Amino acid sequence: MIRKVTLLAVGALMGATAFGAVQSYGTSASAAGSETYRQLAIFGNVFERVRAQYVTPPEEAELVESAINGMLTSLDPHSSYLNQDDADDMRTQTRGEFGGLGIEVTMEDELVKVVTPIDDTPAARAGVLAGDFISEIDGEPVRGLSLSDAVDKMRGPINTSIELTILRDGADAPIQIEVIRDIISVKAVKYRVEDDLGYLRIISFTEKTYGDLEDAIEAITEEVGADKLKGFVLDLRLNPGGLLDQAISVSDAFLERGEIVSTRGRNPEETRRFNARPGDLTDGKPLIVLVNGGSASASEIVAGALQDHKRATVLGTRSFGKGSVQTIIPLDETTALRLTTALYYTPSGKSIQGTGIMPDIELEEPVPEELRGRVRAAGESQLRGHIQGDAETDEGSGSIAYVPPDPKDDQQLNEAFKLLRGEVTNAAFPPSPETAEVEN
């Protein structure tokens, strides 16, 4: 049975985000003072001078949007104005589906390289193969485009066509392939069986994440057999975050009881606490969670909850350290305001803003020689204008965010497998729930 946590607050990618209605404010304590109105009058005066006297006629809508964004980005790196395109893109990401072709791609030699076509999607049916290079999209050369620009061009309304020019190893000439776009559902969870273990990788926290996770756990348990299954690895590395309600549901999937996360805003009465419900989808099987510098926000909520309750051992390197909640406030039918309104806290009452989740077992992933100097540690504490965390120190947050493409080279993953199979030992595994410093 699917357990759902119904929330008024949900999240957006790269942040735990609450969707809220437009509020009206009275004229009491929150009313703007006379000095504020004087400053607004100055802004209006500057705007009129620019509009009337700038050397070339400016785009007035762009001026206003830039002014709004300047105000918001001066607060912190995660508050911003969402125009119609931005708001639509955010909704697409959180739904986990879009109109497109169905290919996983990367950039190589200034061309779009197809990593793999997703089964039973327009690209696969049209004959696009792994290893193909896309040199033109609807006749426009790919060289000079960023990967995100190329991906945007390949997405579009369903039932519309797109022509790809393909360079294929062994082909004498470029191949022209027409693809009809369709709805592409992106799996939020990938999984596989590793002999007597289950591997679960959460890519992002979209509306589909909990359902995908439940299906994956069920499939692994059925394939291996509940009596033979020794445990699970939950891989949250390179996970940028996502929907807050999905992070809570994922945490709840492994917990029987207790607080998962709390969000605390400007006023004490705005504090909200979210608790687990009875029922562990894995029946208490041993669990190791992998994190690195690419694990942010919603993924840190999950890692923090499972770590604090001693339900899982966290292995890897310090996470990104984004512990703020952004509220999405609709401004009209097409635009919205993304505003930081709270910080979230793990069950032990710890804010990870600017500090991150510190693993129980710290193990760095070696970076190949050819990538050294190109892959650098990153964290919230390094972002200009970030909110100072309650426990932030000079050490800061974040670490190298690198995962080897071949699992055989993945030292963090293979260490987790060895721990679960008892091939190596560590005092941090298995954890002791009775020592958890949280209220259950």
TrEMBL record:
Residues 1-20 form the signal peptide. Residues 379-410 are annotated as: Disordered. Keywords: Hydrolase, Protease, Serine protease, Signal. Pfam families: CtpB_N-like, PDZ_6, Peptidase_S41. CDD domains: cpPDZ_CPP-like, Peptidase_S41_CPP. It comes from the Bacteria. Belongs to the peptidase S41A family. This is S41 family peptidase. It comes from Pseudohoeflea coraliihabitans.
